[in-house]
Amino acid sequence: MGMSTMNAAVLTRPKQIEMKQTGIPTPKDNEVLIRIRAVGLCGSDVHYYEHGKIGRYVVEKPIILGHEASGEIVKLGAQAPAHLKVGQRVAIEPGATCGACEYCTTDRYNLCPHVEFLATPPYDGAFSEYVAMRADLVFPIPEDMSYETAALVEPFSVGLHAVRRGGLQANETVVIMGMGPIGLLTVANAKLAGAKTIIGVDLEQNRLDVALKMGATHTVNLRSENLADKVNEITDHQGVDVAFETAGNPKAVQGAVASVKRGGRVVVVGMSPEDEVPVNMSIIVDSEIDLRGVFRYHDTYLAAIDILSKKIVDIEQIITGKYTLGETAAAFEQAINDKTNTLKIMVYPQ
């Protein structure tokens, strides 16, 4: 570690990413310095790149994006715990919460209002050669786990938390709206939870094909098939126990509400571009439907690493493109311009 500067892909303004030399961070006592090996490109990154904001989070100065990251420890802060060693390969949980508020002290730390989350303004992310990270957010991975799988622990955690929030039980029936990376990883987690019937819904046939490989039992292509008719046919006119909305699309929210049985649960994971989405309240009241929001995840990393280390889920089949750090701008353009063929893009900072 003789150098003092590193390369980083910096979003300088919407749709403008520039390669810059920036200082390698010095880890604080409770941090470790990580050489970043793989970073997944997330829909939220693309949103910041295109629009400069998501909801109440606004990019006001140049920012390094990327929060789905893995790498190896190169330096330990003075108080780093004994189980972490230089050279260790790790997955990074990207949200440093305060540990003291009512949410942090009641096992819902994903709701901490003081969280510092990688690549959420004003905090820099991981499209860079090195990142300093609080030691309690750094999780060793098995030697035979790839850096790609380790980076995907982050979006896999969203699917795992969504399934937990939905209270999904073995033998229940599920519909999942939207077969992007989060939808596909929700499919995988629904299968792991023992769902009997898993219906994947999307407009793109190639995404539905991947859904079947990830554990979906049925698919609905909205370009050629009617959602209500298909759900009725598959569930014998009962509707599903749980509907997950992972598309971030108002129509998908409405489709999810319409697909559940009386007394069913609707779990909304996707962040819609519109703050307000019209839903049929009379159905929600008359059928006593539970509507549950999902924000990121909590307490998922150890479980996710354990699940993925068993190789039951072939998570890397969602990777559709690989780019170097210098090609980060091209990776974003690929994600925007070829939505049909793009699922998860990986960027390699080394």
TrEMBL record:
Keywords in alphabetical order: Metal-binding, NAD, Oxidoreductase, Zinc
Cofactor(s) the record lists: Zn(2+)
Highest taxon, organism lineage: Bacteria
Enoyl reductase (ER) domain span: 12-347
Annotated Gene3D superfamilies: Medium-chain alcohol dehydrogenases, catalytic domain, NAD(P)-binding Rossmann-like Domain
UniProt xrefs under InterPro entries: ADH-like_C (IPR013149), ADH-like_N (IPR013154), ADH_Zn_CS (IPR002328), ER (IPR020843), GroES-like_sf (IPR011032), NAD(P)-bd_dom_sf (IPR036291), SDH-like (IPR045306)
GO molecular function, one term: oxidoreductase activity, acting on the CH-OH group of donors, NAD or NADP as acceptor
Pfam families reported in the protein's UniProt record: ADH_N, ADH_zinc_N
Official protein name in the record: L-iditol 2-dehydrogenase
SUPFAM superfamilies assigned to the protein according to its UniProt record, in alphabetical order: GroES-like (SSF50129), NAD(P)-binding Rossmann-fold domains (SSF51735)
Annotated family: Belongs to the zinc-containing alcohol dehydrogenase family.
PANTHER family, A to Z: SORBITOL DEHYDROGENASE
Statement: the UniProt record of this protein carries the keyword Metal-binding: yes
